[in-house]
Amino acid sequence: MKHQTHSATVRVFIALAPPDDAKEELERALQPAYEAYPRMRWNRIEDWHITLAFLGELPVATVPRLRGPLADLAGIRRPLRLALRGGGHFDERVLWTGIDGDLDGLLLLASEVRALVRECGVPYEGRPLRPHLTLARARRNDTSSVPEAAAGLTGFSGRPWHAGRLHLVGSNIGRGPGPIHYRDIESWGFGSGN
After folding, report:
1. How far apart are CA 178 and CA 159, in angstroms?
2. Would you list the DSSP string of 137-184?
3. Per-residue pLDDT tens digits for 112-169
4. Contact by Cβ (8 Å): 45, 156
5. Nearest to 114 by CA among 125, 106, 104, 105
6. Cα–Cα dist 67/85, whole Å
7. Are 19 and 27 in contact (CB under 8 A)?
8. pTM (2 d.p.)
9. C-beta neighbour count of 42 within 10 angstroms
10. Which of 1, 71, 103, 183 is the most exposed place for a label (fewest CB within 10 A)?
11. Which of 137, 168, 167, 131 lies closest to 150 in space, CA to CA?
């Protein structure tokens, strides 16, 4: 019975994903940090994403209501030209790289996604968008690794790329020592825009 209760919900977010070559470029820039801070909880490169709206824990039955409207939104949006740039941290605990490029377009897309979520009857009270890609989290009682790793990314400037798909993503909710893994529930290619 407990297993059924667990599988009746899924943790969901809507995101963009950099292409593999942009992620590999950042991964190369992170090599010194990987070697210097092996105990940090590094996100898997295949899970790197730019969250537009984090919806949290939803009933599985709610997810289909989002599919059609998200597909329609993607169909009328144009791809966004973005780049990964620099590094920083939240509260000395979360290491991130920043997003550069068409930030106005990114903020508009995020606001459209969030409005659509609410129109679909999914409660959403998210924080303002701070465009970033989360790379790692510090372990408890470690307040130096993340700021030092962020400093190592200061000069990083990735090549521009086009975000061409909108992703509806689910995650496992593992609270253990291992990383959280993400999987696309579905994704939709952007159209040509207006």
Report:
1. 31
2. EPPTT--SHHHHHHHHTTT-BPPPEEE-EEEEEEE----SSSPP-EEE
3. 999 999 999 998 888 889 999 999 999 888 888 999 999 999 999 999 999 999 999 9
4. no
5. 125
6. 31
7. no
8. 0.88
9. 17
10. 1
11. 137
